[in-house]
Amino acid sequence: MASPSHSSLKRKHDTPMPPLSHHDPLFNVTPDCLQHPEQLSLTQNGIAYTITMAQFVHQHDRYAKHPLPDDLFPWLHGVDGLDHQQSLFFGVRKVVVPKHRGLMLVHAGSSSAEDHVKRLAYSLPADLLVEQQLSPDTNQPVWQFRKDPEALHGIHLRNFSIQSWRCASISDLVVFGPHAKTVACRLAQAQECIHRERQQYHQRLALSAGKRAVVNANDLQYRIFIISGKICQCWRNQTESFIFSLDAFDTIQQNFPEWVWYDDQGTQQQCLSLADMEKQEMNQFTRASQITDHLWVGSSHDVPVFDHDDQVAQLNNPLGFSVCIECHDLAEMTCQSELTLARAMLEERDQDQVPPELMHLDMYSTGAVMDSAQDLDAFLASLKDLLMFMDDMTRQGRNVLIHSLDAYSESSLLVLTWMMYKQDLSLRDAYLSLQHQRSFFVFASDVPLLQVVDHFLRQSSALDYYKQKWIASLHNNTPSQLLDHPSRLLMTDQTIHEISHPQPLTLAVNPLPSNPDKDDWLSCPHFEGSFPSRMLPFLYLGNLNHATNPAMLKALGISYVVSVGENADLNNQDFQHLFLDNLYDDGIDSVKSQYDRTVAFVDEAHKRGAKCLIHCRVGVSRSAALTIAYVMHHFEPLSLVAAYTLVRARRLNVIIQPNLKFMYELLQLEQQLTGRFIVPWHFLSHQIHLLNDTFASQKEELSF
Fold first, then answer.
1. 401: containing domain
2. Which residues form the catalytic set?
3. Which of 21, 441, 624, 695 has the highest CB neighbour count under 10 A?
4. Which residues contact 95 (CB under 8 A, 6 or more apart)?
5. How would residue 500 be classed by pLDDT, with cut points 50, 70 and 90?
6. pTM for this one?
């Protein structure tokens, strides 16, 4: 049987639509996008509408400005009404799919290799959205939208991985790529299946709970669009026909370069990966800086390398380093003979002459590699030799680089030790001096070792006491993640809570006879090794332990504190305190109602030349969301993606994890501040999932 003509399809399936008003709760495409329908295989009534790239860009611009709805939760959490535990937690009896029409761009490649060729910005590959499953009616394989994995059943607050196919099932889908027709057929079949399933569910729900339960049920039928190059109308023998140019990529590259992610050669034209953006932000934030004369701190990316562009390899060493000391967890302490050899090799050249080859030395990144008093004594002896060597080199005017892979945690042990040695500072003053110059992170397990080093360098009579304290700390119940993973780690809320509340040490030694110092924040039981994270010169993000160490806050110049759901109970005479009560990280509470109060409070601190701390319990979700909101406001207009990567990178070793609803509300804030969202929710969620998956210590997210 011959396929009906385009004209008959247009008359049969097109229905006139009223113009979209600002108050229309549902987004819809304009009628000009429904002029060129085509019958699809695999379906009974599947239709794909051919549109140009210009039409798609116009529709996407309208969609980006259309107010994002508030009623997608708890459905986006993965709640389907079939899990009693879910329904009880989120306070719902029956769940219907929200009535919403999104707009999603789908890349039609046939393999993962084609995902990086001729790909448009913000598109998701089709195999991420649909898969073949057996039909319960015919027991035959059909294309359906992906189902939430069994492992994700239960209560989850950070289900970023399921957002792509959940959003696809309530969106019009726009297909572009070398296999657009094939993919369009699969998507249309998935749409038919999900529409039939929802109708059957609504019928059962109406019978069991009454018709009122399905008043707002989603009965929408979603569409498929295919982007083509040109649509030319012509007349032949009084018959209207259309000519389609299926390879539109050349036209798109020429006329819409901002929409090209990967070009026809597979070259990336713009950075849309959150992982790459975070890496760029981190490299910029941790770039090498000079902390004392001729002594630099940076990452391993700052180590000079040989440039092989010319026939003769030359060392690319713009800062003129002579010695590079790498701090890592597999290091062996540099011995005295190695230092003697390095001195001899450097003395062969003038003091102002950079050697053709660098001297590379090693240093422990943490004291966790030692487990006895003998190890400690050997370490202290080697450490003093290394410090004397570094001092000799810098006095001679030679530049020394202390580096590690992350540039902020693994090198902190040596950097703080150097500042105590070189500038004759106490550990407390070394902390503050380094914080003034660059951000850093110290593991709680290394604080006792740094205290030993402090008293060792000063030849203090209390050295034996601190050695015994360090030995006792080896048996402390510190979570193993601190010792086994000195780099960044994506941890559950429970693990971060344990790290934020270490067990107190039980020492088999008599305490030092001294008067308690109320300003000694270093000895405060709430001090966990590191300061809160500096987001901006006047804004810090931290946890409850930071907020309950008032001496440390004063030392950092922090006099304004925003407590998000956790009361720090600070003295009102010393601190301006904003307590945002009854705000929980439960996927139910909304954070956007607190934007205005928080922004006004932090702005007041900034205008008065003060510094402000925003904290919750662990500093990863509630306080992180409000910090992102403030950064977006402060640099207005700043996109959510830019603010998110800035805060995530500057939180250093603690990876922020605002829950799903908080992130969605931040996207609504972006729309409010700029008049549109920049990155669609489905693409943003997928990128967050990929980014978290890179650091995940376990595949399953926190569930209750």
1. 287-480
2. 616
3. 624
4. 74, 75, 79, 80, 81, 87
5. very low
6. 0.89
